[in-house]
Write a structure and sequence with these properties.
Elements lengths: L2 H12 L1 H8 L8 H4 L19 H11 L3 H14 L4 H19 L4 H4 L14 H24 L4 H21 L3 H21 L7 H13 L2 H9 L6 H12 L6 H14 L3 H14 L4 H13 L3 H16 L10 H12 L3 H9 L9 H17 L3 H14 L4 H11 L4
Helix pairs in contact: 1-10, 1-12, 2-10, 4-5, 5-6, 6-8, 6-9, 8-9, 9-10, 10-11, 11-13, 13-14, 14-15, 15-16, 16-17, 16-18, 17-18, 18-19, 18-20, 19-20, 20-21, 20-22, 21-22
Length: 418
């Protein structure tokens, strides 16, 4: 039976959420949703070796890791023009467009990927322009890779590049088109390409990013889903996946940063908080303007039930962001997280102060303002300050009446939330 038929049967047999768990496995740059904002203040020597290995490529990646997507794309466009036959150059450009669009869509919330589904949920649809551009670049990269592989089926660099392209295609079709069958087909091809790379060149550690990620995720799935995954070429073992990601993180290649970030995520899921904190704190030192990594330290401490330390970590992010230290990314999330943590500690006074910090943030995203206002309103209700609570609930609704936060606010307007 052809793989495509097995994939179709698998999708029917598993149904929605479990099938989506398998489909999303093929993400070529799965780690970059956390690595998006690595700081441009890092010296070039702090970055791994990218391909093509030239100054413009390195500049593009520094800007990419700083979330300065417009200038990163300008650099990557130059490189692609200078290296029209290099699939790595095209992949780099496609990846920058893809991550830029996923970030704009709100599909890169780390908490989505820390739960059992491993799936992000976009808050906004992709634009037609971005979709067309990404698809065009993926097709161009695939053509270059297939041409090289027709000449030499064991071309390790072309196999690796095709695996990355297929991984990005899986990300695109899963997170943007929400086409899980197509995403799973690309995921199967991505993993097989990188397994072949490791057969031909066992020291090619970059290939262990996708293979290790798949091993960990499949190893984390329920038994029935794991067995079904084996039908289309996926096997998995959590411990082996973590070992492979450690190897990729120490390899010094272009996947090493993403591997460290994925390790921190997976180690958190395994309750190995000290290991994860060690990784995150090293990255915070290496990339001091990376707001996502800075926030992750607080998230890890909170998951480890070290709530006072988590509040201190979030406060540090807020103070740095409010003084302009984080030019990109939503540092304001630190106020919401700080307030949520303080509420869990039964420190309603501190939580209220944290939520109300959002009033000082003139450019905070509407959903963050909604979350903060809703939390503050609920505390005011607990304090029997109904007028202040109603004011907060009305603010939530005025920001976006169609959101789940607005639905919660309407319930609290009908009856005090205590």
């Amino acid at each position: 039976m052809p793989v495509r038929d097995l994939v179709s049967d698998l999708g029917v047999a598993l149904g929605g959420s479990q099938f989506r768990q398998l489909a999303i496995l093929g993400t070529g740059y799965l780690g970059t949703w956390l690595a998006l904002s690595l700081s441009a203040v890092a010296a070039p020597a702090d970055l791994p070796v990218f391909r093509p290995n030239d100054p413009v490529t390195r500049s593009g990646f520094e800007r990419f890791y700083n979330m300065d997507y417009a200038r990163a794309i300008a650099d990557m466009e130059k490189v692609a023009a200078q290296h029209p036959d290099d699939p790595y150059a095209v992949n780099n450009l496609a990846n920058t467009y893809l991550i830029q669009e996923l970030f704009r869509m709100g599909a890169l919330d780390p908490t989505d990927y820390a739960n059992d589904s491993f799936i992000g949920t976009p808050q906004r649809p992709a634009t037609t322009e971005a979709k067309n551009k990404i698809k065009e670049l993926l097709e161009r990269a695939t053509g270059l890779e297939e041409e090289r592989l027709r000449t030499n089926p064991n071309d390790v660099e072309a196999l690796y590049a095709r695996g990355v392209t297929r991984g990005m295609r899986s990300s695109y079709t899963g997170l943007i088109d929400r086409s899980w069958l197509t995403a799973l087909r690309s995921a199967v091809g991505s993993r097989h390409d990188h397994e072949r790379v490791l057969e031909l060149s066992p020291t090619f550690t970059d290939a262990k990013l996708i293979v290790g990620t798949h091993d960990y995720v499949v190893g984390s799935l329920p038994w029935a889903v794991k067995m079904a995954a084996s039908l289309v070429g996926f096997s998995g073992n959590k411990e082996r996946g973590i070992e492979e990601l450690y190897a990729a993180s120490k390899g010094g290649g272009e996947a090493s940063i993403d591997a460290k970030i994925l390790l921190a995520l997976f180690l958190r899921r395994e309750g190995r908080f000290d290991e994860a904190l060690t990784l995150v704190r090293k990255m915070t030192q290496q990339f001091p303007q990376n707001v996502i990594v800075a926030l992750e330290e607080g998230d890890l401490l909170r998951a480890a039930h070290r709530d006072k330390e988590a509040v201190a970590a979030y406060r540090k992010v807020w103070d740095a962001g409010h003084s302009g230290h984080f030019p990109f990314g939503s540092y304001e999330l630190s106020a919401v997280n700080m307030g949520d943590t303080q509420r869990a500690m039964k420190d309603d006074t501190g939580a209220l102060l944290s939520y109300n910090l959002m009033e000082e943030a003139s450019h905070a995203a509407p959903d963050l303002r909604q979350r903060a206002a809703l939390g503050a309103g609920e505390i005011y209700d607990l304090q029997q300050k109904r007028d202040l609570a109603v004011k907060k609930y009305n603010l939530v609704i005025s920001l976006d009446g169609s959101s789940k936060w607005a639905d919660a606010a309407r319930k609290c307007l009908r009856e005090p939330c205590r």
